[in-house]
Amino acid sequence: VTAQLRALHDARAVATYSVAQRFLRARAPFQLGPIDAAACTAFTQSWVAHPQRWPSWDWHALSAKYYRHHYARLDLAVWSGPTLCGLVLGRFSRAETVLQLNFIEGAPGPHPLRGDVLNLGVTFGEILGEAYGAKVLRVTCPAPHVVAALAQKGYRDVAPSKISPYYHFCERQLP
Amino acid sequence: VNSTKPPSYAALPAYIAEAAGAQFMTRLYAAAERAQWVDERVAAAFADGPEFSGGQDVEPEDI
């Protein structure tokens, strides 16, 4: 059953990547795909030791964990030709009512999609979440400019509170 | 830059559409249709800072 669920997830993911890359607009041509061996190799070769990289997230470990434990996930690699421009990881809640984007990172230094990765990641999340039947998309731990951008898209800013004391997120109802 | 020409179901390999299910494919195309127009102000706001977000592997809570 687990293998069947994974196969179905993969088919859905491939369908989503195929559709999204026809619709979304960006400043350069791009291709969307899963965080696979090619994406991990590009990450290791081009991102890890880059002096302009800010986060220290280990995308090898993160993607391996999500593949192992979260069949209902969003894993997205954004390419422009041979250049890995962005990586996104998110997962669905247990009842799949919420899709939550936990990690989005653009490539360090100049790249063809500089400035578009966050927008692409969130918009792709909206498409995948809606197609899966989720009711809400959440973006966790957003930076101030991300909060401002999400506010323009109709997202609600939810500060840490008694209900969710450990993290800050922005959320929007999906159609 | 990317084409906004309406795609067809035939553009996807048949086995993918079959495995994903007709209901999923219908919702997928509807969602992609809504997402195709990206507001310029939104795009500018996203680009107005470091290109990363998140950083905690938080368990999503159902609603």
What does this structure look like?
- The complex is a heterodimer of chains A (175) and B (63).
- Chain A has five helices and seven strands.
- In chain A, 46% of the residues are buried.
- Chain A has helices at 2-23, 37-47, 59-69, 117-132, 144-152, and strands at 31-33, 73-80, 83-92, 98-106, 136-140, 156-158, 169-173.
- The mean pLDDT of chain A is 92.
- In chain A, α1 (2-23) crosses α4 (117-132).
- In chain A, β3 (83-92) and β4 (98-106) form a beta hairpin.
- Chain A has a seven-stranded mixed β-sheet, sandwiched between helices.
- The two termini of chain A are 30 Å apart.
- Chain A is globular and about 40 Å long.
- The radius of gyration of chain B is 17 Å and the shape is extended.
- With 63 residues, chain B is mainly alpha-helical.
- Chain B has helices spanning 14-20, 22-35, 40-46; one strand at residues 52-54.
- The chains are: A alpha+beta (175), B mainly alpha (63).
